[in-house]
Every structure is written in C-alpha cells, then in structure tokens.
Amino acid sequence: MDIRVYLAGEIHSNWRSEIVDACSSPHLPISFMSPVSDHALADGIGTDILGDETDAFWKDHKSAKINAIRIRTMIEKADVVVAKFGEDYRQWNTALDVGYAVAKGKPIVVLHPSSLGHPLKEVDAAAMAVAETPEQVVKILQHVAIKQDGIDS
Amino acid sequence: MDIRVYLAGEIHSNWRSEIVDACSSPHLPISFMSPVSDHALADGIGTDILGDETDAFWKDHKSAKINAIRIRTMIEKADVVVAKFGEDYRQWNTALDVGYAVAKGKPIVVLHPSSLGHPLKEVDAAAMAVAETPEQVVKILQHVAIKQDGIDS
Amino acid sequence: MDIRVYLAGEIHSNWRSEIVDACSSPHLPISFMSPVSDHALADGIGTDILGDETDAFWKDHKSAKINAIRIRTMIEKADVVVAKFGEDYRQWNTALDVGYAVAKGKPIVVLHPSSLGHPLKEVDAAAMAVAETPEQVVKILQHVAIKQDGIDS
Amino acid sequence: MDIRVYLAGEIHSNWRSEIVDACSSPHLPISFMSPVSDHALADGIGTDILGDETDAFWKDHKSAKINAIRIRTMIEKADVVVAKFGEDYRQWNTALDVGYAVAKGKPIVVLHPSSLGHPLKEVDAAAMAVAETPEQVVKILQHVAIKQDGIDS
Amino acid sequence: MDIRVYLAGEIHSNWRSEIVDACSSPHLPISFMSPVSDHALADGIGTDILGDETDAFWKDHKSAKINAIRIRTMIEKADVVVAKFGEDYRQWNTALDVGYAVAKGKPIVVLHPSSLGHPLKEVDAAAMAVAETPEQVVKILQHVAIKQDGIDS
Amino acid sequence: MDIRVYLAGEIHSNWRSEIVDACSSPHLPISFMSPVSDHALADGIGTDILGDETDAFWKDHKSAKINAIRIRTMIEKADVVVAKFGEDYRQWNTALDVGYAVAKGKPIVVLHPSSLGHPLKEVDAAAMAVAETPEQVVKILQHVAIKQDGIDS
Amino acid sequence: MDIRVYLAGEIHSNWRSEIVDACSSPHLPISFMSPVSDHALADGIGTDILGDETDAFWKDHKSAKINAIRIRTMIEKADVVVAKFGEDYRQWNTALDVGYAVAKGKPIVVLHPSSLGHPLKEVDAAAMAVAETPEQVVKILQHVAIKQDGIDS
Amino acid sequence: MDIRVYLAGEIHSNWRSEIVDACSSPHLPISFMSPVSDHALADGIGTDILGDETDAFWKDHKSAKINAIRIRTMIEKADVVVAKFGEDYRQWNTALDVGYAVAKGKPIVVLHPSSLGHPLKEVDAAAMAVAETPEQVVKILQHVAIKQDGIDS
C-alpha cells in the first residue's frame, strides 16, 4: 500500500524536508505533496499570471483561488494530511485545510507546540494524533505505512 | 423553500441576534442554528459532564468533542453557513468549520472587517460572499430565501 | 410524496407562472422554486449589497455568486429540474445549471422550441424529457406526482 | 502527483495543442484528455455506428450520448477541467460540462475573451480562474503541478 | 420514525393494495409510493404528451424515461424497497429497480413464488428478505416500523 | 433543530427509557429510535415470518437481516448514535453498528463501565464522547440540542 | 486515459471474446473484466467452497453472493458497462447489474436483438447506447477510448 | 483487475500468512494489507511516540487512534475485507472494522468457527460469505480475482 501524505500549513521553517528526508527509506512507500512553499510566488501568482488588480482584495482572491486548485487536488489525492501550526501568523488557511480534509474523511496528524493546545483544541479534537516534533510525525507515518514480512504484499 | 442557516464563529459580540432579529419576518422562511455561545459553559462542558482531567489537553479535548457533536450536526443540516471573524483571538475553530462546510458543499458567507482581508484570503476565496456588516448578511439571506408571487410556491 | 421542482432558465417570459398555476390543484403535491426573476435586481445584487466595483468583471462576479447561493441550494433541494431555453441570449447559466443538476442525479425536463434541437443536443441527451410547451411540462409533472387511490399513501 | 486535465469546449481552433505542447516538459507530470475534436465525426457517430434515423432529433440524440460516454468518463478521471468559450456558436455543451464538473468537485479554469465576461458571469463565478489566453492556462497548470525539490516526492 | 416504502414491480395483480391496507393502522407510520399502475397509461405516456413517433423504439424510449422520473425519485425517497416478481412477463424493469436501489443503499424485500428462486438468485442475494406472500411483507414492515412504548419517541 | 438519536446496544437493562424519560422536556427537540428490544421476538423474527429452517445458521441469518432493515434505516436517519456496552454477552452487533455509523459520518456517544475501557479502546477512539452513566448521556444530548434564546430559531 | 469495461450478461455465446479481440490493438487502451463465464462453476461455487446445503435456496444464495463479490467489485472499477441480453433465459441478474451500475454513475451500453426492444425499454432508457451487434459495441468503445495526436496525452 | 484485500481481526494466529502464501501465485493479481500484528507494538504505539499518560484510558486512546489511521486508510483502499473472529478476546475492534467496511460498500468475507455463529449473526448477515477455514477464504479470493483466457484482459 502506497501512502500519500499532504503537508499543510507553515511555510516559514524546514519542517517539511525533515519529514520527507526521514521517510525516504526504500522500505517506506510514502510520497509527499505540499502547497507551493515560496511565499512571494504563492501570494502573487494570481496577478502574475492573470493581470494586475487595483483592489488588494481581488489580488489576494485570484492568488488564493489558483493556490486552492493545487491544495484541494492534493488533499483529495492524499491518504493522510499533516498540518503544522506555529506561534506566528494567523494561519487560518491551515485550519481551513484541516476542516476540508476532515469532511473528506482524511485522517489528520496535527503538529504544533504544546503552548498552542488551547486555541487549537477544536483542530486537535478533529485529528487522529497531535505531535510536537517532526520526528513524532515521521514515526506515526512509519507505523501507518510499514510492510510486515509475510503478511502485507 | 425553508432555508437553514448555521452561524459559525465569534461568540463575544451580539452579531448573531442582529441577524436573527432582522430575518424574523414571517415572509422569510429562514431558521438559525448556532454553537453554544456561553463561552465558559462550552469550554468546560467536557469535564463538567464526564469528570475532571489533570492534563489541560484532555480537558480541552473532551469539551471540544462534545461541542463538535453539536457543530457538525448543525453544519450537516444547514443550507448556508455564515462565518464571523473578528480582530481578537485565533479563531482557528471558525476556519475549521468553514473548511468542513465547504467540503460538504455548503455555500459560505464570511463576515469580517476589511482589515482582515489578507490573512483570510483563502477563507474568502472559499466563500460565495464576503460581508463586513450583519446588515449585509441579512440582505444576502433575504435574496436567497425570498418567495416571489406566482413563481415560487 | 411531495415533489419539489426547480424552474431554471429564461426569465423574460411568463412560462413559470403558467406551469405553477396549472399544477396548483390540491391533488398535486408539487412545490416550485426559482431563481430571482427580476433581471435588474439579480444582476446588481452583488454591488447593491456589498459595495460597488470599478471593474465590470468583479461586479458581475459578486452578483453571480450571491445568485448561486440561491440557485444551488434550490437545485440540491429539488426532485426534478425543469430548464427553459429560448431563441434569445446566450443562456450559458441555464446549461450550467443543467450540468450541475445532472451530476447531482436530478432528473431534468428541458423546454425549448424544436428549432434549438441541434445546438441543445448534449443538453437534451442529458434530460429525461424534451418538451416544447409549458403544457407538456405540466402533464409530465402530473404523471410524476399523482397519487393513485389505494396504492399510494 | 500526476495531474490529469480535461480540455472542454471549442473544437474550431488549436488552443488544445498549444496547451499540451507547452506542458510537455518532463518535469511537469500533466496528462491531457479531450472530446473527439473531429466535428463531423463526433456529430455523426451515433448514426454511423448504430444506423440512420429519419428524425434529426434522434440522430443528434444518439451521437450526443455516445460522445457523452467519453466526456463524462474523462471529467470523472480529471483533476482539473479547462473550458474554452469563443465568440461563435452557442456552446451550451461546454457550459453543461462545466456545471457537471463543478458538481463533481473538480476545479475549473475558464478560458475566454474578456468580451464574453457578462454572459459567462455564472460560469466564471463557478471557476477557480478565468484566463484569456492559452499561455495563462499553461502557467496555472504549471503552478498546480510543479514538484518542489526536497518537499514533494 | 416514518418509514417510506416503494412498491416496485408487477402491476397485474392487487398485491400493492393488500400491503397498503394491512399497514393502514394508525400505529404504523408507514407511507407507500408506487409506479403508475395503469399499464396502458404508463406505456403510452411519452407519445401521449410529447407527440407520436414512427419508430416503436423511440415511442417506448420516451415513455420509459418519463416513468423513470417518477420511479427514481421515489426510490431515492424510499427507506425500503419491496419488489414483486411473478411468473409472467420478463420484468427486467423490476430487476433494474432492485439493482438501482441496492446501489443507493436501500434495503430490499423481494416477493415472489418459490418456483422463481433459481432465476432470481442474484436478486434474492441482494435482498434483506425474500417473501412469498404479501402478508409476510406486511409483517416485515411492521417489525421495521413499530414504535415501542417508552423506548421510541 | 430536531435531533434524532439512535440507541444501539444492550437490551437487558432499562438504560434506554432512563435517557428517553430524562429528555422528554418540551424544550428539548430530541426524538429516539431503537432496535426491537424484545429479545425473543427479535431473535425469532426471521423464521416466525418467513418459515422455519433446519440449520440454526440460516434461522439466525433470516432474523438478523430483518432486524438489520430496521437498524440501518434508523442509523441513516439518526443525527447521533448512542451505543451501550455491558459486561455480559459478546455484543459484536453493537460494535458493528458503531462502525457502520462512524463510516456514515454520525457522531457516536459510547456508554460503558470504565472496566471495559481497554477492550473497547478502538470503539472509544471512534467516538465523540465516552460516558459511564445514562445521566451523562442525557447531559450531552441536552448540550447538543438546546435552543438558545434569541440565537437559535 | 485507460478505459476499463465490464462485460455483463449472457454467458452462452462468445460475444465477449469478439469484443475483446477487436479491441486488442495497442492503440486502444481498453481492458476488460467479466463474471466467471463457466456456468456450472459459477452456479456451484457456494457449496463447492463452503459446504453443501439441503435447501436449494441457500445453495443458490451462497453461490450468488460469492459471484456478487466479483461482479460488484468489477462494476465499481469499470468506466463503462456493456450488458448483453438474449432471447433465452430470464437474465434478471443482468438487469440487476445494469441498475446497480446506473446508480453508481457508470455509462451503460446495452447489446440485444431489436426484437427485445419493448421488454427492455426501461433498461435501454437507462443506457447511453443500444447496440445490436458486438461490432457496434467495439466501434463505440473505440470512439470513447481513442487518443488523438497532439491533443490527448 | 488487481484485487486488494484487507485482513482484519485476530492477531494471535498465523491465519494471515496462510492466506497470503496460498494466493502468491503469479496468476492471481491479489495484494494484501493488514493492521500492525505485533500486539505489544500496536498497543503501546501512542505513548511510545507521543509521550506517556498517567490515565490508562488516554494511553489506549492515543494508540487506538494511530492504529486507526492505518486501518481506515487500508479499508478505504481495499476491494474486499476478510475479518477473522476467534474464541478468545472480545474483538470489538474487528466488528467495528466490519461495520465501517460495510457502510463503505466493501464486500466482507467473515472467517470464524461455526461455534460462534449465533453471537456473530449480525456480522455474518452483513457479509457476502462466511468461511470456517483460511483455505475457504483462499478459494473465494481466487474465484473473485481469476483472469479467464480471452475474456478478461
């Protein structure tokens, strides 16, 4: 069984590559998908491609929708969604992704410092696991994806 | 056609009753649902009913899950979801509700001050309308629900 | 069994009230839903409620999305969708509604003059019946909804 | 992640091959599907295979249904649907395809000259992006499908 | 809990009214739906309403599709589908209805003489109960719908 | 909002009527559904109605399927499923009902003595709340269903 | 696009291999699935594997259910279902398969002699094409699956 | 057609490898998935990865949820679910898996000694086959997956 994982949320640290690298063992049939992590590129993609807007709302709107094509397609294809929340920024988009994924029946692993436990209680309650480090996420994905000799094929 | 509306989000102002009162005309077949808006009650409901916890995480967890029974049931029954975001608090639960509702195919009306446009761009991009005042939400709901003489029955 | 019918399409003739009036017999448990048929109201609803736009594209966009809240909610609630096409205007919105309704598993009755048969062949092929007059639509709805003595209850 | 794109609409220009050629880079895991673009073949396929009809309606009907087997199967398999509208012809079938794809949860990119903005406002409101040139569509698909080093696998 | 039952199949005997009459007790919240049981009316409805056809295939086609609007709508609304097969006629439409209902997750009660057990084995295998008399069907529906004092409300 | 609750599981104690009675306040719009709780009746219903079997397996099979018509229909109609496990009997049918309800997206409240926590850990992990007494279940249902003055309508 | 086709119905002629052979061109990405076509094997599979039954009903039941595992799994995986009806036998299982496939949104091609048009009118009305020969079915599948140079990839 | 089989239930005997080995013929396109069968590992995985708990309930909870990520993902990917029940332990998790799989439309093969027929009657009634030995399960899977010369491709 190949497991496809979508890595939602924070794009200001290298948590994604930590997880991807740790799962790159050939015995772990896991592949990863993620939003475009170049913040400036993602934020400006709408007007970069489709032409400028005078109103900031529509500039944001065009970019958010093009990014949403990628994000929703990836969530639909994912078997598991990992969502990272940090201390900075509002990150409403990450909570939006979690809500979307939950309604689509995708199991969620949330990754955040324990200090965010109270404001994230509804997100955590919708998740199958709440981790504090990328290493914990890696171990969870290994448990989900590992093939057992003579049993899985 | 009866329209059922779920009012998600902020419980620190009276925006819900403003909308409910304005839509109470007998010609408008709209009914409203909402989360339990008594903040202390909702936050403590888990341990109040099911017994105390030493760990704050599990206390929050039990409350969030009981509240989620109400919230998800109401979103499932809703025809339209209105979601209010304000300047204060993280409100990740509201973005979670929007994501859930979008994936269930529910049309969303978002209500927030224009100053929050950039951090809410993904939420707004998932919505059918973005309002700044409860009065605007009322007018949208009226347009959706109004019966026209000789045409609707 | 109550049958709910959504009347999609042309808002420049009185075809809807012809059908609604003819089905108003107490023995026919049929109710009707329709888009807002006041063309100027529907076209301007976005900026009327949510504020003006300098770009015509966004003006249209805001109105089309508010109208879509009504239209999609009604199609979801409908048991049968009747879609009227005429000689004038492009009416891409009506074909959009038919495609949406077909994918949701709703049976479609199309109403158009026979002269439009060739350009509407894909729409007709997606329908359960193709009528040329409102009277024919009425008879079809009667056949679908009629209660038979001693058999239906 | 492999992205499958269905190219709906106009068959009288070479817009499809422009997009397909521009996305043929080995780094872009995009594949394309399309309706049968030989107009005479598609229009006559019903009677060519299944025998002639005296009534033009049934001739059209048989062809439209065989073409629909292909079109609906491809939309079901697609991750993204691109729909092209031009100045000529009624193109109700393209709007039908868009409505069908929207209800199936497929993200839509619409491609049309800006002059068609008003009559296509409901179609555009159902889309994730509205482009005016095939080049813009190509850039959107690149943004959706691109693999990022060390992050996507 | 109100139980809605669709009575599919044979229209040449009075099995439907036997079941409906026996379930008319006020303590049994069961309502019944059925196809149009006037054979000539149902067979000719297409051309009666929409105009004659020279080819018998299209005459049958138009009638079958109008009847299907009624039948599919009723199966969608039904909680339970009862399907009657007899010795006469091919009754492929009844097996079609059963297949449709099974795929929609509706529980099926099949009613047929035991002599038809072998040719109906796939239909019976898709059912929750196989009855030989209308009285047995009545007892099954009573067991499904009965309210128990102090337990059901 | 009316809340429909299905009460699954143990039929050897009066836990159902305790919950139903406590929720009979006119301010609580809750209705209850349950399996047939007369054990002998439910166990023998298959052969009682449809004729005897020599093989105990088929006797059980016929009864279990008729009971399943009732149970699955009720779970489909339920907003919330309450499942009671006790010390006695294997109660695989109750765990089966929970699994079915979870996959249908129904929120689950499990009711069992704390001594059963370890063997029921997978069932509890699939639930939104784990109660030890009917009184706790009542309070949870009240929190889910209560109407708030001026907010819910 | 790979097209998977399920070949339902009659197992007493070689119509399946005629279609499979004609579609074996490397340019046609079509694969075929079918029920077990050895009639004696399929009819006896239940008791052959699971032990004998004294009652013919249960013997048939066990076989029909094991065959149904194969048939339903294949219909779920199919893009197109071809269903063959002939003059002999009741073939209720084939109509059952068609009903199941229609409800799952699969396009149907029916294959039968024109003499069966009237009794199969409801089946034909649920289909996208009605063929009389395997050659016609082959041509339809070719039209659905063919890749066009420079357009499909 | 590749058939994916999820092997649910008992982890205290080698029934899984018996089935996997017997199906390893290259002519049988069957692959197998299973829960983590190392009992101590699966039971402790939650606290091993995410940190200890003082309350046994939460320790079990964290493990059960991580295991559920694997189990539900595998059931979603499975074409057929085989569920083994034995004389020992409560095995509520296995019945939970069966209920979940049934609601997802997966065909079930149950494997248990005949002595468990009565308490498992509801589980058996939800299944497509009830086997007593792994050899019988192997034969069923062979019947489902076998490719027939000249017919399947």
Description:
The structure is a homooctamer of 153-residue chains. The first copy, chain A, is built from 6 helices and 5 strands. Chain A has a 5-stranded parallel beta sheet with strand order 2-1-3-4-5, sandwiched between helices. Chain A starts with a strand and ends in an 8-residue tail after the last helix. By secondary structure, chain A is of the alpha/beta class. The model of chain A has no long low-confidence stretch (mean pLDDT 96). Chain A binds chain B through residues 56-57, 60-61, 63-65, 67-68, 85, 89-104, 114, 117-126, 130, and chain B through 56-57, 60-61, 63-65, 67-68, 85, 89-104, 114, 117-126, 130.
Descriptive key words:
about 45% helix; homooctamer; alpha/beta
How much helix, percentage-wise, in residues of chain A?
Answer: 40-55%
Please state the oligomeric state of the protein chains shown. Answer: homooctamer
**What is the succession of H and E elements of chain A?**
EHEHHEHEHEH
Through-space gap between termini of chain A: 8 Å
Q: How are strands sequenced across the largest beta sheet of chain A?
A: 2-1-3-4-5
Average pLDDT, all residues of chain A: 96
Low-confidence stretches of chain A: none
Q: Largest interface, with Cβ-Cβ < 8 Å?
A: A-B, 38 and 38 residues
Strand content of chain A: 15-25%
| Largest sheet geometry of chain A | 5 strands, parallel
Number of helices of chain A: 6
Helix-strand category of chain A? alpha/beta
Query: Which geometry of chain A do the CA atoms define?
Result: globular
Rg of chain A, rounded, reads: 17 Å
Number of strands of chain A: 5
